[in-house]
Amino acid sequence: MPTRVLQGLVAGLLVLLLTTAVVVAGGPTGAVPARVRASSATSTTVITRGDELGNSLPRPNSGTPPQASGDRGGSAQVTLFVLLVAGTAFIGVMIVREVRKGRRRLEAEQHR
Questions:
Q1: Of these four, 54, 78, 81, 85, which has the most CB atoms within 10 Å of its CB?
Q2: Where are the domains of the chain?
């Protein structure tokens, strides 16, 4: 039983450490720099070709590359994606491990 508690503490500490690293490295993604807040200029897009009318989805590679970590495709999104995949993989590994442990325990009880 103490090993299970220790494993839970280690897993919790790992999650806390990864979360702290993401926050420190990327900063708050919702923050707006002062130079952007002070700017009141707006931009508009004028569609010159008729084939883009009625299509609300942008065409591939028609946007701009990410400038800040919170932009689409920026480092914050990539980091979040990696953390989600790693977390899902960790949960899957833990489930497989517990199922195998349970099967071994069941087999050992049946052989007694």
A1: 78
A2: 73-112
